[in-house]
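hiii so um. not sure if this is the right channel but i have a protein structure encoded as tokens and i wanna go backwards to a sequence. like what aa goes where. can anyone help
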């Protein structure tokens, strides 16, 4: 097993840093601070380029094909432009006041796949969904407690998914044509000290899983074996993605919440963005097709 050490890429702090994605068209890394209500932009080296303050908590961010950023929030979906202006395109969570969107991504076909979390912490009350304007939300995986990391195998035929309280990464057969899932089975178990959070899949089919509370990212080979670990100088590791030149840098987000003051002094990198070269590459995010989904979906 190979062990790597991540280093802080930038000192931009976050309460709950999450959801890094690489926007290849604009050569930028997009990541969010959920509780800090912000979207952060970094360059190929991970250094901060700018931030946008938001009126709502973002759950995830995805590049759109017109250069804007599609946000899944506590209310629905919105497009963010370079001036910080928000265009609300859906209030998909209207009627679900106990929920907000959490982790999500576009699949290799550009379809939005996103999960929810219960704000009151109710177990099995959330779900993983696909969303299309006009069609609304379609449930993929019901009975979820805390919908988190997801990613696809290089051929798009397998979806990896984390429901954090299970302590597992599960795999599904995935139909790229329809977005349907089937044949759920356990893929990997996070055996403490933390719990699985966000994940990414590299170009060789390895699954990199953030260990929230464990201060590391774990790589599972396609057969489920652990073959690499990245040590992160922050206990709460939230997610990761590949980006930068040749998409060969693993970027890692972290959180500074729920950390005692004395530990914060010892680990000043908590909440920052980190980076490491692990000798592999990964795919860029597939842009969401705005033009083919341009009509707004509002219920009021």
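sure thing!! here u go:
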């Amino acid at each position: 097993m190979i062990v790597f050490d991540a280093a802080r890429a930038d000192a931009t702090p976050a309460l709950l840093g999450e959801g890094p994605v690489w926007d290849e068209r604009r050569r930028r890394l997009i990541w969010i601070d959920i509780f800090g209500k912000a979207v952060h932009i970094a360059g190929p080296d991970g250094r901060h380029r700018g931030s946008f303050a938001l009126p709502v908590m973002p759950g995830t961010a995805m590049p759109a094909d017109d250069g804007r950023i599609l946000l899944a929030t506590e209310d629905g979906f919105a497009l963010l432009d370079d001036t910080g202006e928000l265009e609300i395109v859906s209030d998909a969570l209207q009627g679900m006041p106990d929920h907000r969107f959490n982790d999500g991504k576009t699949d290799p076909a550009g379809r939005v796949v996103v999960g929810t979390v219960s704000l009151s912490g109710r177990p099995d009350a959330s779900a993983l969904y696909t969303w299309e304007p006009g069609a609304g939300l379609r449930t993929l995986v019901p009975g979820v407690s805390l919908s988190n990391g997801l990613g696809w195998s290089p051929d798009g035929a397998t979806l990896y998914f984390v429901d954090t309280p299970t302590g597992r990464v599960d795999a599904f057969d995935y139909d790229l044509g329809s977005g349907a899932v089937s044949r759920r089975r356990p893929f990997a178990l996070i055996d403490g000290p933390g719990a699985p959070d966000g994940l990414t899949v590299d170009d060789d089919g390895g699954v990199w899983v953030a260990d929230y509370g464990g201060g590391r990212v774990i790589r599972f080979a396609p057969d489920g074996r652990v073959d690499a670990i990245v040590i992160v100088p922050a206990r709460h590791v939230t997610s990761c993605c590949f980006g930068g030149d040749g998409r060969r840098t693993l970027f890692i987000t972290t959180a500074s919440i729920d950390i005692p003051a004395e530990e914060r002094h010892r680990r000043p990198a908590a909440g920052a963005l980190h980076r490491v070269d692990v000798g592999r590459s990964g795919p860029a995010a597939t842009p969401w097709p705005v033009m083919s989904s341009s009509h707004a979906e509002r219920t009021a």
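oh and The mean pLDDT is 94.
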